[in-house]
């Protein structure tokens, strides 16, 4: 049974939640491998809307086991809130949710450091979600982090906490002039969390290995996206984890030799939340119109998302870095009313035309987009059941995007609902999950 990685190909919020929820009935397990509660993955089921932050987007399907892998950083308070809210809405977690012993904890001083560091950066701030994700990964890399397993050992937890609080308090007081933390308060709070989470904490790498040995199929759910990856994104305006396909292996403990394919999720245009270069960004009323039609406000922070045209240079880069086999294209409907639709096909940089994404902050910042324009289709795409139902001009737009990024599409999404999805002819998904045909048609 195939093990497939799902990743965002742009700057996040491409609709990974919708795609993972759609595919979840066709796999046995969904495993998150990166990020923390900076993510906001939306699943819409009829009139119900679920925004998942740390829990994988397969959780609404009772037969699907969900794993929070070691590559994820977990804010236990936020996770418990998410768990309680799902249980209240009738979702079963017991027997369906598994948290890696090795996942690092977001501690109360992490969001404080996140906000203090952003304030100090001033004009050069990243525009983080303020959830403490960056500082938690700093501690992980510095070998000072506290992990899920430590929650289950009070002596060890206290020892690590004392070391960390002493160091962080100095940093907060002396560098940032910010409030400090008390070991006892954190200890009491986190021991309560430990009581809650203990039944879910386990060796998820071993579980995944056994499940795969037994023929289970695993979907690896990426958070954030290619252009926010710590190595391959628009550094330093990125998040602090490996959000590209390679992260699926390190972030779960499943070896690369057991992965069978990579599916990218792309919007029919582009959005970005937070600061940093965005060559195909739109300005003025056009950006506002797309933001309004696409409801482009952050699922985690509510911040308005910056909007731009589809960037084929970014698309091709994402195809190369992730080894994309196929792409699910979302939010085509948002462009339905555009008179013309533009696609960025190159960057002008100091007299040259660049056709490969430049991995250099200075070049990306100066790059001027070079567009190809197509006529808008000005007709609703919403009710389309297959590609042939789409307006001819919309089909041409899709064909052009496929050609530019060099990857075939598998799904076209024309609305937030599960049913508003078209399975592409010869969709590569059918090779992995033949049962998708009957569920989507
Ligand atoms: P994620 O972080 O990649 O899971 O994406 P988000 O959930 O943050 O943002 C995607 C938003 O677009 C959510 O509100 C979805 O419900 C919505 N959405 C997903 N696909 C479509 C689509 O094809 N059309 C429209 N109009 N909305 C969509
Ligand atoms: P999903 O999974 C969009 C952005 C933040 C900021 C940068 C660093 O829903 O696609 P961080 O808090 O991670 O240190 O912030 O990354 N960012 C996201 N943007 N979607 C996300 O997640 C994001 N998670 C982080 O806006 O620019
Ligand atoms: Mg999101």
Description:
Helix content is 34%, strand content 20%. It is α/β, with parallel strands linked by helices and 441 residues long. A ten-stranded mixed beta sheet has the order 9-7-5-2-10-1-11-15-19-20, with helices on both faces. Strands 14, 16, 17 and 18 form a four-stranded mixed beta sheet that branches. Strand 19 (409-413) and strand 20 (421-423) form a beta hairpin. The model has no long low-confidence stretch (mean pLDDT 97). The structure holds guanosine-5'-diphosphate, 6-O-phosphoryl inosine monophosphate and magnesium ion.
Task: Write a concise synopsis of the structure shown.
The protein has 441 residues and is α/β, with parallel strands linked by helices. It has helices at residues 16-23, 76-88, 109-121, 133-141, 148-151, 154-175, 183-197, 204-213, 246-250, 284-293, 312-322, 361-366, 392-405, 429-432, 436-440; strands at 4-8, 29-32, 41-45, 48-52, 65-68, 73-74, 97-100, 104-105, 201-202, 218-221, 261-267, 270-272, 306-308, 310-311, 326-330, 340-349, 352-354, 368-375, 409-413, 421-423.
Q: Going across the biggest sheet, name each strand in turn.
A: 9-7-5-2-10-1-11-15-19-20
CATH superfamily of the largest domain: Adenylosuccinate Synthetase, subunit A, domain 1
Give the termini separation.
Answer: 22 Å
Bound molecules: guanosine-5'-diphosphate, 6-O-phosphoryl inosine monophosphate, magnesium ion
- Proportion of residues in β-strands: 15-25%
Average pLDDT: 97
Query: How is the main sheet built?
Result: 10 strands, mixed
Task: Look at the helices and sheets and give the structural class.
Answer: alpha/beta
Task: Give the low-pLDDT segments.
Answer: none
Name the assembly state. Answer: single chain
Shape, per Cα inertia axes: globular
In CATH terms, what is the architecture of the largest domain? 3-Layer(aba) Sandwich
């Amino acid at each position: 049974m195939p093990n497939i990685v799902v990743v965002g190909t742009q700057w996040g919020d491409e609709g990974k939640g919708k795609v993972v929820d759609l595919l979840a009935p066709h796999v046995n397990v969904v495993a998150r491998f990166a990020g923390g509660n900076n993510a906001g993955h939306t699943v819409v089921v009829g009139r119900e809307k679920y925004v998942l932050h740390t829990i994988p987007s397969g959780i609404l399907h009772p037969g699907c086991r969900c794993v929070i892998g070691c590559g994820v950083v977990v804010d236990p308070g936020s996770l418990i809130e998410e768990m309680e809210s799902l249980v209240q809405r009738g979702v079963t977690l017991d027997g369906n949710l598994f948290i890696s012993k090795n996942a690092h904890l977001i501690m109360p001083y992490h969001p404080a450091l996140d906000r203090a560091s952003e304030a100090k950066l001033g004009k050069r701030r990243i525009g983080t979600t303020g959830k403490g994700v960056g500082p938690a990964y700093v501690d992980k890399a510095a070998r000072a982090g506290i992990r899920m397993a430590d929650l289950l050992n009070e002596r060890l937890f206290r020892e690590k906490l004392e070391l960390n609080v002493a160091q962080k308090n100095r940093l907060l007081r002396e560098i940032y002039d910010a409030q400090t933390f008390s070991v006892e308060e954190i200890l009491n709070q986190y021991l309560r969390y430990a009581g809650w989470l203990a039944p879910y904490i386990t060796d998820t790498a071993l579980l995944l290995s056994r499940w795969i040995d037994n023929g289970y199929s695993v979907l690896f759910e990426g958070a954030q996206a290619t252009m926010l990856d710590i190595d391959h994104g628009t550094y330093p305006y990125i998040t602090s984890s490996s959000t590209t396909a390679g992260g699926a292996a390190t972030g779960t403990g499943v070896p690369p030799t057991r992965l069978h394919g990579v599916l990218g999720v792309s919007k029919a245009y582009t959005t970005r939340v937070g600061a940093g270069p965005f060559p195909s960004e739109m300005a003025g009323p056009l950006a506002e119109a797309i933001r309004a039609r696409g409801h482009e406000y952050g699922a985690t922070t509510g911040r308005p998302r910056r909007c731009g045209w589809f960037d084929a240079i970014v698309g091709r880069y994402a195809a190369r870095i992730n080894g994309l086999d196929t792409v699910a294209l979302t939010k085509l409907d948002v462009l339905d009313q555009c008179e013309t639709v533009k696609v960025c096909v190159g960057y002008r940089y100091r007299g040259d035309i660049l056709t490969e994404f430049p991995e250099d902050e200075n070049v990306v910042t100066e790059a001027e987009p070079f567009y190809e324009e197509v006529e808008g289709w000005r007709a609703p795409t919403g009710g389309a059941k297959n590609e042939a139902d789409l307006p001819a001009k919309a089909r041409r737009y899709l064909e052009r995007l496929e050609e530019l990024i060099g990857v075939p599409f598998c799904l076209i999404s024309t609305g937030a609902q599960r049913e508003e999805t078209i399975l592409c002819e010869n969709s590569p998904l059918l090779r992995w999950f033949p049962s998708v045909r009957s569920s989507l048609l």
